Amino acid sequence: MKIKSIRQKNRSYVLLCCALLLTFWLISLFEISSTVFSGKEVRNIFQLIVFKLLNHFYTVLFIFLFFLPFYHLFARKQHRYGTIFIRIAFVILVIIEFALTKYSLTTLLNLGADLLGYSLDDIYLTVTASESTSIFNFLPFIIFPVLFLVISFFLKKSPYYKHSGKVFAIITFAIIVLRIFYSDFLQENFQNKMYYFVSDVIHYKMEKSEIKAVQINDENEYPFLKKSAEINDALGPYFTIKEEKPNIVIIVVEGLGSEFVGDRYYSGFTPYLNSLLPKSLFWENFLSNTGRTFGALPSLTASTPFGEKGFLEIEDTPTHISIFSILKRNDYTTSFFSGDNSSFDKKINFLEYHDLDNIIDEKKYDDSYPKYTNGQTGFSWGYSDREIFRKTLSFLDDLKRPRLDLITTQTIHEPFDFPEKETYIKKIDSVINSGSILKVSKKEIAANKEIFASILYADNSIKMFIDNYKKRPEFENTIFVITGDHRLIPIAQKDQLSRFNVPFIIYSPLLKQTSRMKSVSSHLDFAPSLLAFLSNNYNVIVPEEVAWLGSGIDTAEEFRNIHKIPLMRYKGSLNDFVYKDFMYSGGTIYKIKEDFNTYKIEDEALEVQIKKELNEFKSLNAYVTQNDKIYPKNNDAIIRENYEFTAEELIKLEKLTINMKENEMFMLAREKAFNDEREIARLICNYILKKMPNYVDVRILKGRTLAWDANYDKAEIELLSALNRAPYYDDAYLALLDMYWWSSQNEKSNEIMLKAIKNKIKNDEIAFKMARAYKTMNNLEKAEVLIDSILDKQPKNDAFLKFKESLK
């Protein structure tokens, strides 16, 4: 009787696993159908359906083994308890599988350990950008769990129910044999999404524990350190050299892959950039060192290693140098222009480390710059490319030359929303219907119309910027560098290398000859080459020793690779490496052809060599970033000193802020400040600001507490910094006016009021505080004008009326 009961329980469990398998398969059919109906090409649908079913069974086999002990544990007293537990668990698995499938449909990538590289806030921001909040998007999250329950119900009624265990065992044996002798069905695009996610996370964690920082002897304490004179001036022969130092304008175009420029497969939607190519130095086989935006800034400007999850994610920034810090010491005005929140990906921490003269992000735009917001989700990444370039042009007049300007765009990114979108979509329709000869099929263009429209818009925005820049007197002495941060993701990638392949264009009136290069270089090679060029030709003083990861751009016109190029596909995934004309990716070697296409090869000796090179780099990468051994701490490297906490302060902070997010820490700091614990409040503020220097409310709170303690000089520094970071934020003006009132520095209030008027800040409290300052300065006429203007809008406000009476 007991054996019969166990068999009955096992059959029930196997039945639920079969229902889970069929539900997973239906989710895959949904994925394939959605892909087909969107117009995207799906090759060999029958093979895809079969292989996905096999992979789902392979995954369900692991799930079967994992949950079996839990099932019997719960079913011990009563059978139904085990069944209820497994149903709940499997419903959760169905929801997770569908969520991962939705991610894959949006990005054309399986989600893996890259999730670990982002904070919950960043994940929420990214998902909000890509997904509509429509009820129709949430319905499948209900439908598929219900389908699982319905399928399990009907399977139990099936006449084959009693044979389910035997069938499951036979298929399991067949799958294991297939796994041993035919591994192709386990390719990433066939895999169960949950299996891929878990296996990728496990692989990432195992790799993280295996790679240890190497031990370096004192003679080689800084392994990347080299003599700056060793770097060849590869760019000099192409330029006409003038006496005046050139302006450098770097444009990093979001999502711009090489496949969209020149005569590659997806070309035809960057007419302006294509028109620049014959007038420029152009590298078509250039590589970004990361598969997402997080790595472009440090790689391009500082040629740094990656750390564990990208250089910007290292909590205590290692000592290093960059083109910003070196050119700033050579009297260059350094500026960064973007249209998004510079706190995202911690760009602001890197920029402030190098003490840039100007950091322009979304907080620096006024109402004259339209900010496009998605009508369905209400989401916005910030300002579109055209507005970023307009803002840049409006800002340049007041800047001293020579200048180093870095501009980052963002329109070629999910959700591909931008002003005049319908106009550009119509232009794509015109391209489709024009009979133009394009390599990409019209069907694929139609399926990705918004993406191609965003590329066309970005290209036209760059044209607007350079056309307007040509009218400026410094144009003749300016060097433009245009590249992508990585290849955009939501259009299918031809191979593993495609995601990193970006164009690299140097355009300038100073060029005396142009060239199209097929040689391979990467973003890591730019900073060494730029500074070697400026040092050799313009008397720009470069430190005697530098610590670049790259060795300089190769200008050979024929196809070759003389570099060893590490690539981080996503935050934390340092498993891609380009060595000679081979790419090693995820344990597989690919031969890189002259046209930059790849094909898989097997070569054990070569694999051993590449693995050795990659592992050596991983160890050095860990050593220099964990031990602050990129560059010695000296006058060449230290630009701005960071606030350093004592051991005692860190212990106190850990107790105070345990498990708190930054917003919760801010509320705690407010509470402490209002309870006369201002030293502790400022300590918490400093802790937040070290991580998030652009958290303006925290900076204002810190400034106010300093003012309350009559430390007016430091209060002024903090509050002016807050105002500079957010010139359209009312609270910064209010805090400064209060501080000047308390410290009897009312004359300075004039400057703040003028700035408020210039920036069109309309706030009656600001006007009232300024009227109060005028009264103190015995300028009763101006005080009366201001208070009257407020009373016109708030005639019954007691405080304002009382102040009006005091002027008589």
TrEMBL record:
Membrane topology: Multi-pass membrane protein
Subcellular location: Cell membrane
Main localisation: membrane
Domain Sulfatase N-terminal: from-to ranges: 246-533
Superkingdom classification of source: Bacteria
Annotated SUPFAM superfamilies: Alkaline phosphatase-like, TPR-like
Keywords: Cell membrane, Membrane, Transferase, Transmembrane, Transmembrane helix
Transmembrane segments: 54-74, 81-100, 135-155, 167-185
Annotated GO MF terms: transferase activity
This protein's record includes keyword Signal: no
Gene3D superfamilies: Alkaline Phosphatase, subunit A (3.40.720.10), Tetratricopeptide repeat domain (1.25.40.10)
One Gene Ontology CC term in the entry: plasma membrane
PANTHER family from the UniProt entry: LIPOTEICHOIC ACID SYNTHASE (PTHR47371), PHOSPHOGLYCEROL TRANSFERASE I (PTHR47371:SF3)
Protein name per UniProt: Phosphoglycerol transferase MdoB
